[in-house]
Specification:
about 775 residues; alpha/beta; eight-stranded antiparallel β-sheet; 25 helices; about 15% strand
C-alpha cells in the first residue's frame, strides 16, 4: 500500500489565489456572488475588487515574517521570496499586492495613492492549529481610528459554527463544496469589531471570547497545481498492482477531486464516490451508540435518500468490498473526526461487553488503542482518501494498514507527516520548495514548447537563421534555468520529515517512490540469486569434499586459485544488473526459505550430482589402482579422475550463475548485462577447450593430466561393466563433453520450468485471495 500526502507531495506548495466569493446582501437575504473577485481593493476597478473589510482579513490574518539581513535591516521589497511562512499566505499577499514592513505591520502597495486604504497593524495572533482548523488575529488600521478588529480564517465547517447566523447565506455549504469539488482549496473568512478594545480582554479570556458572532466575509479560493509527474507515477503504481491512497489534512471534497485527477480514484461515468459520515441522530445524542453511513460525497445530510445510503457495519463491509471490486462505487473517503468517533465507539462497545470501568477515553490516543485498531483494520483497507487528518490520525491509519497485513510506504514532505513516516515500513520524505518547483516547471515547459516549435519548423521547412539563433538562445536559457533549479534543490536544508524517514529524496517529485520499489526489487532478486548460487555451490563443494575425496579426487593449488578468481568475478558481474524502468505486477519471492527457492536448489543439485557421479564412475576406468595419489590423505597428482571432476565441478559452478540469473521482469535480462555475458562466454570457452584438449598448454597451467584417447581403457575390477562399455564405445572426451552439455541444458530447462510453474501457482493464489478478500468466495 502506497500512501501519499497531498499538498507539497502530489500537488505543489506553490499556491495560486483564484479570488474571493463574496456575500451579497439583498432584500431577500444574503446570497453569494456569482463570480470570483480576483483583485484587492482598487478604486479604479470597483467591479472586480474586494471590499476593504475583506482585504483587511486577507493581509492581516497571517503569520508571515520578513527575512532579516545584517544588523536588523529588513528587505522591504514587495517580494514574497523574502518572506518566511505559509506558502498560502505568501500567495495571498502577493496577489493583493500589499507589502510586509515588519512582523506586525502590513502596508498597501502605495500608501500615498491608495486613498482610503490604511496600513494594518497586528496586536495579537491566535495561531492556526490542526485541531481547531482556524486562526485569528487582533488588528487595527493605522491612522484610521481606534477600531480594533478580530480577523479569522479557517475551514468552512470549522468557522461556520462561530459566525453570526444572519450573515451566513443559504448557499454557504453548496458554494464551498462546489469549489472543493473542483480540487480547489477553500477558506472561510470572518471578522468582527471588538466592543471594548482598550481592556484587551482577549489576553485574559483567550480566543474563545474572540471567535464568536463573526461576520461572514466570503470564501478565499486557491489552487494547488499538480506536480508534473504525479499522475504518471500513480498510474504506474496502480498498473503494477499497488494500492494507492491519500492521507491529507485538506477538505474531503478537495482531496477526493485531486485523488481523481492523479488516478487514486478511478471514476467511470456516473459512478459515485462515497463518504463515511456520522448520522444526524447520533450527533444529537453523542453518548448513545454512534451510527455511521456511507453516502455520496457530494450530497448534503438533508438531501441524502435512504436508497443511496449504506449503513456501516461489519456485515456490510463485505458488500462494500464487492461493490468496489465491481466498480459499483468509485471509492470511499473518510475524515479524521469520523474515524476517531468510530474508534471511540469501538472501544466503548468493548468495555460495555466486558463490563469494565467506563473511564475517560482520550480522543488523541484512542485510534491507537488495540480495540479500535482491530475495528480499523477491517475498515481502512477499503478507503482511498483520508481527509482532514491530523498527524496522530495519519499515524493511526498507517498502523491500521500494518495491522491488516499490508506492507506500507508513506511519502510526505512536512512535519505533520513525521508520525506516519515513522510508522510505515518504508517512509520517504521529499523536499518542498515552491519557488524552485515553479522555476523547474517553467524551464521544462519551455523546453517542451521549443521542441514542438522545432518539429513544426522542420515539417514546414521554414527555419531561418535568425529564428534558429533565437531558438538556440531559448534552449540554452531553459537548460541553464533547469540546472540552476537542480543546484538549488541540492542546497535546500532538510526538515523534520527527513529525520523521521529512512529515505530522503532531494527532489520534489514522488517518482522516488517508484525508484525505491524498482531498486528494492532489483536488490532483492540479486540477493536471492546470490543465495541460490551459494546454496548450490555449497552442496557441490560438500560432495567434492566428502564422497569424491574418499574416491581419491583432489584439486591442486592452481585449480583452487582459478576457481576462486572466476567465482569472485562472476559474483561481481551479477551485481551489475540494473533495475527496469517499468514496474511489473509480478512480485518477487519475499524470503530465501520459500518453496520456489528451495525446490530450485534441490533440483539443480540433483542434476549436478548425477552428472558428477557419472563422470567419476567413467574416470575410474582409466585409473591405475596402485596410484598412491588415490589415497584420501595422499598428495595431489594430476590424473584422469582429478582432471575430469575438476572440469565438471567448475562447469556446475558456472552453470549456477547462468541458470539463477533471474532478469526480467525485475531487472535487466542476462543479454543486457553485457559484462556478465562476456564472462560466461569466456568460462565456457575455456572449459570446453580444456575438455577437448584443443590447447594443451592451458591444461598444463590449470594442472590437468592428458585425457585418455579411445582404446586406452584400463580394466578395473571395481568399475561396473555399463560405464566400461560406455567409455569404450564413445571415448572419454566425448563422454565428458556430453555430460557437460547435458548438465547445462538440464539445469537451465529445469529452472525455467519451475519459474513458469510457480508463476502460474502465484497467479492462481493471487486471484483466489483477491476473490476471497472481496467476499466473492465464501
Amino acid at each position: 500500500t502506497c500512501c501519499f500526502d497531498k499538498t507539497g507531495t502530489l500537488t505543489s506548495d506553490e499556491m495560486v489565489m483564484r479570488g474571493v466569493r463574496l456575500p451579497v446582501k439583498s432584500s431577500t437575504g444574503v446570497h453569494m456572488s456569482a463570480a470570483l473577485v480576483t483583485s484587492g481593493s482598487d478604486e479604479e476597478d470597483e467591479t472586480n475588487c474586494t471590499p476593504h473589510e475583506v482585504t483587511r482579513i486577507l493581509v492581516g490574518c497571517q503569520s508571515l515574517a520578513p527575512v532579516t539581513y545584517g544588523h536588523g535591516n529588513r528587505n522591504l521589497l514587495n517580494d514574497t521570496s523574502s518572506l518566511i511562512g505559509d506558502p498560502l499566505e505568501k500567495a495571498v499577499l502577493n496577489c493583493v499586492g500589499w507589502k510586509l514592513l515588519s512582523n506586525d505591520t502590513i502596508a498597501p502597495p502605495d500608501p500615498l495613492t491608495s486613498g482610503h486604504l490604511k496600513p494594518v497593524q497586528i496586536f495579537h495572533r491566535f495561531a492556526f492549529t490542526s485541531k481547531l482548523k482556524r486562526m485569528t488575529v487582533i488588528a487595527q488600521d493605522l491612522g484610521g481610528g481606534k477600531e480594533v478588529y478580530a480577523l479569522s480564517k479557517g475551514a468552512p465547517e470549522a468557522l461556520k459554527a462561530l459566525m453570526d447566523p444572519t450573515s451566513i447565506p443559504d448557499s454557504y455549504d453548496s458554494v464551498s463544496n462546489y469549489h472543493m469539488g473542483l480540487g480547489q482549496r477553500v477558506l472561510s473568512l470572518g471578522y468582527k469589531k471588538m466592543t471594548n478594545p482598550s481592556s484587551k480582554l482577549w489576553l485574559k479570556e483567550g480566543r474563545q471570547s474572540v471567535e464568536t458572532n463573526l461576520i461572514f466575509a466570503g470564501f478565499l479560493v486557491l489552487d494547488c497545481p499538480l506536480k508534473p509527474d504525479s499522475k504518471k507515477v500513480i498510474k504506474e503504481l496502480r498498473n503494477s498492482g499497488h494500492h494507492t491512497v491519500m492521507i491529507t489534512g485538506d477538505a474531503i471534497q478537495t482531496a477526493a477531486e485531486v485523488a481523481r485527477q492523479v488516478g487514486i480514484i478511478k471514476a467511470k461515468g456516473t459512478v459515485d464516490t462515497f463518504e463515511l459520515r456520522e448520522t444526524m441522530e447520533s450527533q444529537k445524542t453523542p453518548q448513545s451508540d454512534a451510527r455511521f453511513v456511507f453516502v455520496p460525497i457530494a450530497s448534503n445530510d438533508n438531501e441524502v435518500s435512504s436508497e443511496k445510503c449504506i449503513a456501516y457495519s461489519q456485515s456490510n463491509l463485505s458488500v462494500l468490498k464487492e461493490m468496489l471490486h465491481t466498480s459499483s462505487i468509485a471509492a470511499i473517503c473518510v475524515t479524521g473526526d469520523t474515524l476517531t468517533k468510530i474508534a471511540l465507539d469501538a472501544v466503548r462497545r468493548k468495555k460495555n461487553k466486558l463490563s469494565t470501568d467506563q473511564s475517560f477515553i482520550d480522543p488523541k490516543t484512542v485510534l491507537l488503542h488495540p480495540d479500535s485498531q482491530s475495528t480499523l483494520q477491517t475498515l481502512v483497507p477499503l478507503i482511498s482518501v483520508f481527509a482532514r487528518h491530523a498527524p496522530r490520525q495519519k499515524e493511526a491509519v498507517i498502523a491500521a494498514f500494518n495491522g491488516a497485513g499490508r506492507i506500507t510506504m508513506m511519502c510526505g514532505d512536512g512535519t505533520n507527516d513525521v508520525g506516519a513516516l515513522k510508522m510505515s515500513h518504508c517512509g520517504i520524505s521529499i523536499i518542498s520548495v515552491p519557488e524552485v518547483e515553479a522555476k523547474q516547471r517553467n524551464a521544462i515547459n519551455g523546453l517542451l514548447n521549443l521542441q514542438k516549435e522545432d518539429k513544426g519548423k522542420k515539417s514546414k521547412k521554414k527555419r531561418k537563421r535568425e529564428k534558429t539563433k533565437s531558438s538556440k538562445k531559448s534552449w540554452e536559457e531553459n537548460v541553464r534555468a533547469l540546472a540552476e533549479a537542480e543546484d538549488e534543490l541540492n542546497n535546500v536544508a532538510l526538515g523534520d520529515a527527513s529525520v523521521a524517514s529512512p529515505f530522503t529524496s532531494r527532489a520534489t517529485s514522488i517518482k522516488c517512490t517508484k525508484d525505491v520499489l524498482q531498486r528494492g526489487r532489483c536488490t532483492l532478486v540479486t540477493m536471492m540469486q546470490i543465495y541460490k548460487i551459494l546454496g548450490v555451490n555449497c552442496l557441490v563443494n560438500a560432495l567434492v569434499l566428502s564422497n569424491l575425496h574418499l574416491e581419491g579426487a583432489k584439486q591442486g593449488d592452481h585449480q583452487l586459485t582459478v576457481v576462486g578468481l572466476v567465482v569472485a568475478g562472476l559474483f561481481f558481474f551479477v551485481t551489475k544488473g540494473q533495475p527496469l524502468n517499468k514496474l511489473s505486477p509480478e512480485r518477487p519471492p519475499s524470503t530465501v526459505l520459500c518453496a520456489q527457492v528451495l525446490v530450485s536448489i534441490s533440483v539443480q543439485f540433483a542434476i549436478h550430482f548425477c552428472c558428477i557421479m557419472a563422470i567419476t564412475s567413467i574416470s575410474k576406468c582409466y585409473l591405475d589402482p596402485f596410484d598412491p595419489s588415490l589415497v584420501p590423505d595422499g598428495h595431489f597428482n594430476p590424473n584422469t579422475l582429478n582432471s575430469a571432476t575438476f572440469i565438471m565441478t567448475v562447469l556446475t559452478t558456472v552453470n549456477t550463475f547462468l541458470v539463477n540469473y533471474r532478469g526480467r521482469p525485475f531487472m535487466e535480462d542476462l543479454r543486457e548485462n553485457t559484462t556478465m555475458v562476456r564472462a560466461l562466454q569466456v568460462c565456457y570457452a575455456v572449459l570446453f577447450t580444456a575438455a577437448l584438449e584443443v590447447f594443451p598448454p592451458l591444461n598444463d597451467i590449470i594442472q590437468l593430466s592428458p585425457l585418455p584417447q579411445n582404446g586406452e581403457v584400463m580394466t578395473n575390477l571395481i568399475v561396473s561393466s555399463a560405464f566400461h562399455d560406455l567409455a569404450d564405445s564413445i571415448g572419454f572426451k566425448t563422454a565428458l563433453t556430453s555430460l557437460m552439455i547435458i548438465d547445462t541444458i538440464m539445469t537451465y530447462l529445469a529452472e525455467k520450468i519451475l519459474i513458469k510453474l510457480f508463476q502460474k501457482l502465484s497467479t492462481v493464489q493471487r486471484i483466489t485471495g483477491a476473490l476471497s478478500v472481496w467476499g466473492i468466495l465464501k
